[in-house]
């Protein structure tokens, strides 16, 4: 059975996602849709001309909302990108308006698709997509803190001199200023990060002390640093989104920290933020709700309240 994905938005993020999908063969068919049809045509043509050189060619082409019909997954990357000095929240109403314009057009042709929201502020836009469509909650996912989690694990792996695959730590909450790391549940292999110096025994060398403040600052500031240095971020978020698609196409539950609508978890509801989510068979299959400390619970509620305060100011 062939898989089809539509990417809405042919900017840096959308085109990089489409390119990566063609290299990894994430789907058999990839449609690129953009209000700038020439840009979409150019990106699709550039990617398509390289597909004969891949191990398993993918059909990549530019199209319209109607061309998206039959898509298993729709990825929305449209909107104004963050510029140097801007926070993700600075984009809120502008990109809310973009989502409100796109939603009825794409859901008309793809009522059974799973939607991945990537545009920022991603938690706000994921929430808005819930409110302006009839798509079931289990089929709306925001990219959330998956990229933040990857940045966290990369930094921890450098400190510990181990593979990122052996680091099990997460970023919870908003993809933004109020995100936080629940250190109480962070592990390297089978042991708590809070006890790693007592339980890891090296044959040679010494273990470096973890600078928790520096690690959290690194995670939180990475996006702004990249924007300052090269103007935009798109490679790592494209990898993250392709990873979500792989989870959706899988038949075994996979865990990812992505944004979804909360319905009473940890005493929070009617807001989208990131927690470990179980994904498989094209939808959210459940949640993992680890026991958090009182301080971590306060941070999670603070993140939810910060998002709700922004939502209250928006025209949805």
List how many beta strands DSSP finds.
Answer: 12
Indicate the percent of residues in helices.
Answer: 25-40%
| Mean model confidence by pLDDT | 93
Annotation field: number of helices: 9
| Beta-strand residue percentage | 15-25%
Topology pattern, helix = H, strand = E? EHEHEEHEHEHEEEHHHEEEH
Uncertain runs: none
Structural class: alpha/beta
Overall, the morphology is globular
User: In this structure, how is the largest beta sheet organized?
Assistant: 6 strands, parallel
* Rg value: 20 Å
Order the strands across the largest sheet as they lie in space.
3-2-1-4-5-6
Q: How far apart are the first and last residues' alpha carbons, in Å?
A: 38 Å
Your description of this structure?
This protein has 316 residues and is α/β, with parallel strands linked by helices. Helices cover 40% and strands 18% of the residues. It has helices spanning 12-24, 37-48, 92-109, 122-132, 146-160, 196-199, 212-230, 235-249, 294-311, and strands spanning 4-8, 29-33, 59-62, 73-76, 114-117, 140-142, 167-168, 187-188, 191-192, 254-263, 269-280, 283-287. A hairpin with a 2-residue loop joins strand 8 (187-188) and strand 9 (191-192). Helix 1 runs parallel beside helix 2 (37-48) and helix 3 (92-109) crosses helix 4 (122-132). The longest helix has 19 residues, at 212-230. The mean pLDDT is 93. This is L-lactate dehydrogenase. One of its GO terms (cellular component) is cytoplasm. Homotetramer.
């Amino acid at each position: 059975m062939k898989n089809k994905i539509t990417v809405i938005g042919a900017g840096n993020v959308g085109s990089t996602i489409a390119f990566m999908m063609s290299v990894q063969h994430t789907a058999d068919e990839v449609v690129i849709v953009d209000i700038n049809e020439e840009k979409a045509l150019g990106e699709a043509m550039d990617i398509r001309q390289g597909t004969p050189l891949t191990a398993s060619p993918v059909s990549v082409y530019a199209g319209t909302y109607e061309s998206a019909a039959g898509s298993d997954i729709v990825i929305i990357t449209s909107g104004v990108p963050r510029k140097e000095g801007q926070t993700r929240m600075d984009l809120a109403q502008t990109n809310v308006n973009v989502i409100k314009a796109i939603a009825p057009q794409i859901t008309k042709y793809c009522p059974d698709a799973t939607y991945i929201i990537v545009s920022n502020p991603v938690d706000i836009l994921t929430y808005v997509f819930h409110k302006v469509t009839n798509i079931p909650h289990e089929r709306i996912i925001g990219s959330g803190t998956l990229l933040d989690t990857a940045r966290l694990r990369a930094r921890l792996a450098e400190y510990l001199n181990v593979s990122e695959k052996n680091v099990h730590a997460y970023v919870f909450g908003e993809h933004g200023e109020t995100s936080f790391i629940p250190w109480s549940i962070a592990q390297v292999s089978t042991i708590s990060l809070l006890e790693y110096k007592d339980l890891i025994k090296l044959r040679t060398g010494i273990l470096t002390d973890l600078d928790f403040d520096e690690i959290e600052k690194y995670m939180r500031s990475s996006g702004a640093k990249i924007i300052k240095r090269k103007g935009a971020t798109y490679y790592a978020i494209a990898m993250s989104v392709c990873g979500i698609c792989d989870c959706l196409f899988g038949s075994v539950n996979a865990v990812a920290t992505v944004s979804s609508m909360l319905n009473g978890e940890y005493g929070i509801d009617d807001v989208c933020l990131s927690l470990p989510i179980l994904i498989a068979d094209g939808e959210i299959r459940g949640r993992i709700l680890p026991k958090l400390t009182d301080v971590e619970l306060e941070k999670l509620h603070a993140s939810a309240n910060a998002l709700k305060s922004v939502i209250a100011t928006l025209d949805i």
